[in-house]
Amino acid sequence: DGGITQSPKYLFRKEGQNVTLSCEQNLNHDAMYWYRQDPGQGLRLIYYSQIVNDFQKGDIAEGYSVSREKKESFPLTVTSAQKNPTAFYLCASKWQGDGEAFFGQGTRLTVV
Amino acid sequence: ILNVEQSPQSLHVQEGDSTNFTCSFPSSNFYALHWYRWETAKSPEALFVMTLNGDEKKKGRISATLNTKEGYSYLYIKGSQPEDSATYLCAFIKAAGNKLTFGGGTRVLVKP
Question: Is the N-terminal amide bond of A8 cis, ω within 30° of 0?
Answer without folding.
Answer: yes
